[in-house]
Amino acid sequence: MNSQPALDISDLVKEFKPSKDFREKHPEALTEAGLKRAVNGISFKAYPGEVTVLLGANGAGKTTTLACAQGLTKRDGGTISLLGEDPWGASPQLRARVGIMLQDGGLPQSVRPLPLLRHVAAMYANPLDISELSQRLGIDSFNGTSIRRLSGGQRQRVALAAALVGRPDVLFLDEPSAGLDPQSRQVVFDIIEEQKQRGVAIVLTTHLLDDAQRLADYVYIVERGQNVVEGTVADLLTRAADETKTITFTVARENLTLTDLLSGSGQPFSLVNRGHGSYQLSGPLKPSTLTQLMRSFEQLDLMPTHLELTPRTLEDVFLDIAGREIR
Ligand SMILES: Nc1ncnc2c1ncn2[C@@H]1O[C@H](COP(=O)(O)OP(=O)(O)OP(=O)(O)O)[C@@H](O)[C@H]1O
Q1: Of 111, 187, 232, 275, which residue is most buried, by most CB within 10 angstroms?
Q2: Ligand 1 mutation target, pool 64, 68, 211, 221, most atoms within 8 A of CB
Q3: Which atom of ligand 1 lies closest to the CA of 205?
Q4: Where does the record place the ABC transporter domain (predicted)?
């Protein structure tokens, strides 16, 4: 890890005037001044040559955090250092070193992709070759169409090209692979990997856990505007594996209950019946649990046709932390 972070955010606070609906439904979530804290003390660092992922459910505060980090929104508290400067009111020199891909594209609607990219390129001293970049991202194939008429995925690709064109030192990607087909997604992953090799500090927000698991060097899980857990993907998975494991099995019995299998274990297990005799047992599995499970199969005269210990994914970790209800 490089010693100097490219982005260093400490105790970030950002408040918004809440909607009437929110005010009425969540009076407890308002500050004394009647404001809603979208970001309530988030801190994180992003280093050159690494992909730092902010992972959180809808509304967790990721986009607001990035907007403050990019200098697009004024923060209400905390400190931000982006390449050594405060991004709010930053110099044009600093802005030229930062590439931003916004979640909704943020692109002008009536222009076609290539003229737009050429226009963006003209703002930089040493831009990337537009033809090469658009070929790579498959933009050539829809260049005759204005941004307004592009599909969501096509717009995403143009937005990514616009973020890359100035050879940034810091690259902000808000949900970069949302809505992309598998081929485009792979191209985006390859490009992210190349930028990383170039030494770019990449800050990526997502709630797609697959992406985080695949790309992240370091993950910060945020929830309700605050940091909850951080670590490498491996750290988070190991930590979770110590606590809970999942075993899936299939037997010729439709209505098994937890008591049938682990009666008296006194442990907080959960059994999910996935239908057609397929079950998922989760909890702090130990060798003794496996023994008990096998004994129950024997007593019930059940021979599993499938039995597998499932490694936990980042999704499991995330759901444990963020809760399973949808906000
Ligand atoms: N301009 C605004 N005015 C009022 N509330 C806002 C504003 N912008 C964001 N919020 C609120 O702040 C909270 C955090 O929103 P934010 O967009 O940062 O979340 P997010 O983690 O990026 O979510 P998503 O994954 O859905 O993009 C949400 O509750 C949102 O409604």
Answers
A1: 187
A2: 64
A3: 22
A4: 7-249
DSSP string, 179-226: T--HHHHHHHHHHHHHHHHTT-EEEEEES-HHHHHHH-SEEEEEETTE
Question: Quick one: which of 274, 272, 304 has its CA closest to 290?
Answer: 304
Using only the alpha carbons of the chain, give its radius of gyration. 24
How many CA atoms, within 13 angstroms, populate the side-chain half-sphere of residue 323? 8
The per-residue pLDDT for 242 is 58
d(CA 295, ligand 1 centre) in Å: 51
Residue 301 burial by Cβ neighbours in a 10 Å radius (0-12, 13-18, 19+): exposed
Q: How high is the pLDDT of residue 321?
A: 65
Give the predicted TM-score (pTM) of the model: 0.79
**Rounded to an integer, what distance in angstroms lies between the CA atom of residue 232 and that of residue 227?**
15
Dist. CA 222–CA 214, nearest whole Å: 19
pLDDT tens-digit readout, 233-266: 888 877 666 566 789 999 999 999 999 999 876 6
